[in-house]
User: Fold these one by one.
Assistant:
Number 1:
Amino acid sequence: MSAKGDMCYAWTTDAGINGECGGAVTSLLKYALTNKIVDAVLTVTKGVDIYDPLPAFITDPADLDKCSGSLHCGTLLLPKLIQKYMDGAKDMKIAVTVKGCDAKAMYELAKRNKINMDNIFMIGLNCGGSVTPFMARKMISEKYGVNPDSVFKEEIDKGQFIIEYTDAEGKHQHKGISIDELEAEGLGRRLNCQRCETKIPRQADIACGNWGVIGDKAGKATFVEICSEKGAALFDAASKAGVIEFCAPEAKGLEIRGKIESVMINMGLKNQKKQFAELGYGAKRLAFMEKETSRCLKCYTCIEQCPICSCTDCITKDPEIVAPGRIPPNFMFHMIRYAHVASSCINCGQCQELCPMDIPNALFMHAMQVETQELFGFGKPGYDMTLPALAYTEGKKDNGFVYIKMP
Ligand code: FAD
Ligand code: SF4
Ligand code: SF4
Ligand code: SF4
């Protein structure tokens, strides 16, 4: 019997699954769907190319084979899709693969009663970071000197962004460049990923990755950490049914995994300090924010995509506060978002990556979140079900916070 905190190397016994590592994630998802533990799986599949990860809503277990493998060149955040298109899992049990930012978004949406966590099963994926499709193509072409369309596989391993591609003679080649080198030149992972400190998503029911898999199992097994009773029950049932096999992790592997996690967290914290300092402080920062947001088209993408922005009646649409028909909107449009979101921002990057005017929204918001946390002693958002600062405020029903019960 497994229990929370247990760790192992696991692999699929299903020959149809071509997993990123051991295929344990696909096998667990397939088992859950086949045995009606869940009604559907929400995961990610390759679109036209490796730079085009698409959300996949799956009800036929056979379709899961096509989704195995990891896609690092994208900016998807899955929980908001559950809120928007699956009625917040109100009446449907859904298993979903989650990176750290997805897991945090799930918790924050659940606090706002937008997602029913009782119906959610989260399979976590350790995450070293992701790259935008635009950046991936740009750096592969300019820095790697390779045609991005000839790349058939990419991965982030041992501190490098590695591509596998077909050269002009039709031969398979691979090339890796260190992430540090790429990022020193303004390339590499998304800026929010560079600041991220959620590397192993233990908020999920099971957290899976490749860190710590060494010896003869390297590349052939998934490192699994059980994070909840629900996770333990699924893992036990799947192994009893013979769809996954597992063994104890090597002691050295455990040590390596722990070291990598702490190095990555420290790197995230260091990047936070650096990027926040570049914003300046006080009036200087405010002036910079006003300047940057003066490009705003008021397209509402940042609001639509943010997992924290979830009010039915958005105050930015009140004509007495933000004048309609004016581009750019007055600064109050952004101030409202800062006030409502900052204490709960989970640094998912959506409001920045998808902004058509490249306004560094996530950087502004994440800086405010960390400073609010330090100033008032709030916990980090997205790690548990603790109510956000705005839960202490009274206001109109459904304005983004008062539907949370007062403590
Ligand atoms: P598989 O059986 O291949 O299943 C993988 C599942 O993940 C599939 O269902 C697939 O649809 C889904 N998926 C693919 N891409 C995404 C995505 N972008 N978002 C959500 N779901 C997705 N592990 C580490 O130990 N260290 C790392 O630094 C690390 N970085 C990662 C970065 C990213 C962006 C991703 C997606 C994964 C990362 N992983 C990392 C996890 C690792 O790549 C494997 O996903 C994990 O080990 C499970 O392997 P598997 O063979 O069991 O998975
Ligand atoms: Fe991964 Fe963190 Fe970036 Fe999300 S924000 S993709 S968890 S590194
Ligand atoms: Fe303005 Fe960018 Fe938000 Fe659109 S996404 S409303 S341009 S800040
Ligand atoms: Fe994500 Fe931006 Fe919302 Fe923060 S403000 S949670 S970075 S979309």
Note: The first helix runs from residue 24 to 34.
Number 2:
Amino acid sequence: MAIRVTLVPGDGIGPEVIGATRRAIDATGVPIEWDPREIGAGAFVRTGEPLPITTLDSMRANRVALKGPVETPPASGMRSVNLALRRRLDLYANIRPSRLHAGVPSLYDMVDVVVVRENTEGMYTGIELEMGTPAVEELIGFIASTTGVVVPSDSGISVKEITEHGSERIARFAFGYARANRRAKVTASHKANIMKFSDGLFLEVVRRVAREYPEIDFEDRIIDALCMQLVQAPERFDVLVLPNMYGDLVAELCAGMIGGPAVAPGAHFGGKEGRELAVFEATHGTAQRLAGANRANPVGATLSGAMMLRHLGESAAADALEAAVVEVLREGTDVTPDLRAPDDDRPAVGTAEMTDAVIARL
Ligand code: IPM
Ligand code: MG
């Protein structure tokens, strides 16, 4: 029986990289019934909604989605349609495996780090109070009376919130991931020395959960030191678990070490133990200037597709698809222009032709 999967091509280069991924997945022989839906600028133009309820319903019903990059239309009044999607579906765990593949231009020789990012709280609460408003004035008064600290009246204020529940479920997800994928170590990162009641809580909870996984090494790093050590010696790290904003930054830093966001896959998980709902997407943007030009790099999207196959229990197909992508990158003949090192003057190919090369190796 075919597996139903919600398919969101998205905006900009989205339809090309998702189209390529769909073709490659279909070529593995896994029977998938795609359920195409819309999110983003295109959806807003056609339906008046950047995040149509029919798309959310489809994702809830199918429990698995493959998604391209989407644009948040300013006229929609929405802060970020990506964040709204994660929030509405409570996709609390964002997994971004960062593995450097041979043939991809990079400053490094070996990188194999998995970022597990908390995806719903931290600095991303969206609670924003604008300078000069009565709300700020009231909050400043409250802070002065409860802590004695006088916040300057010309402050804009963003609220960061970290919960015990949120920290516990992301910690469990990280250790569960490490166990399932035979990873040896989890490193938690934070700024608990400064933010004792938010990052401090996160660290305390992750430490507690770590004790339930004695076979997995656990350590923690203050976030600035982690960034420094990552760029200096990425081979020291394995699985990283981080609060939302640090996860955003470190995931992008790791993408930079493996050749850039175009080659970096990703997934978001939600529901009980993160098993009930999964949205697979590469981490890059819509790259409007490349849209429709058959120039977009399909690697991040295709590797996200391989992650999806693995999630669906199709591990042989997932391995085959991943191996085919890795082989095409290693050979370096049929790759998009961005994957050419500056000193390599072989002609590049388009998104579609690179995907043909992947399919030929399945
Ligand atoms: C990401 C992106 C998003 C984020 C943006 C698009 C809102 O940077 O997925 O990493 O900040 O989470
Ligand atoms: Mg980001």
Note: The chain has a mean pLDDT of 97.
